């Protein structure tokens, strides 16, 4: 961080706007190289600029492009790790039915199939008459 005094909200917005105009291509390119996904990289780069609005009132960094690239890269790594963990852990959330020893066996419907095809099974209610 530079030794500049803390700036007001308008000054910070001006600094971030200027950084956006000059640093966006560099920040986006660095993030795309990491993620290999343009949409994810754009989201992460945008999050870096939002973080700049929150953090820079304490004073802008000496190198805004490096700061923004680092933040965008860290956000991207967090998202990639979260996605990898989700893919790894999601199958653990699926419960097998009780008494199922064979994981390759197809799951059966809890109700037996109707013998009449598409017609519903008759109800025990006296007011209901089949079509």
Summarize the structure.
The protein is mainly α. The chain is built from three helices and no strands. The chain has a domain at 12-91: Rna Polymerase Sigma Factor, Chain: A.
Tags for this model:
elongated; mainly alpha; single chain; 131 residues
Task: Tell me what you see in this structure.
With 131 residues, the protein is mostly helical. Helices cover 57% and strands 0% of the residues. The protein has a domain at 12-91: Rna Polymerase Sigma Factor, Chain: A (Orthogonal Bundle), CATH 1.10.1740. The chain is built from 3 helices and no strands. The radius of gyration is 28 Å and the shape is elongated.
Strand runs, count: 0
Q: What is the CATH class designation of the domain at 12-91?
A: Mainly Alpha
What characteristic shape results from the CA principal axes? elongated
Mean pLDDT: 80
SSE series: HHH
Report the total helices.
3
Strand content: under 5%
The stretches of 5 or more residues where confidence is low (pLDDT under 50) are none
Which structural class best describes the helix and strand composition?
Answer: mainly alpha
Biggest beta sheet summary: none
What is CATH's topology name of the domain at 12-91?
A: Rna Polymerase Sigma Factor, Chain: A
Give the SSE map.
Elements: H1 9-35, H2 38-55, H3 64-93
Helix pairs in contact: 1-2, 1-3, 2-3
């Amino acid at each position: 961080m530079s030794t500049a005094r803390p700036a007001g909200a308008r000054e910070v917005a001006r600094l971030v706007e200027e950084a956006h105009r000059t640093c966006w291509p560099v920040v986006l390119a660095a993030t795309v190289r990491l993620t290999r996904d343009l949409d994810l990289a754009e989201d992460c780069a945008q999050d870096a600029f939002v973080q700049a609005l929150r953090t820079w009132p304490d004073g802008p960094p000496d190198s805004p492009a490096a700061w923004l690239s680092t933040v965008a890269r860290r956000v991207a790594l967090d998202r990639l790790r979260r996605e990898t963990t989700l893919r790894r852990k999601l199958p653990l959330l699926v419960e097998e039915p009780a008494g199922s020893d064979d994981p390759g066996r197809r799951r059966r419907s809890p109700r037996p199939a109707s013998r009449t095809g598409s017609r519903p099974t008759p109800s025990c209610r006296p007011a209901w008459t089949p079509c």
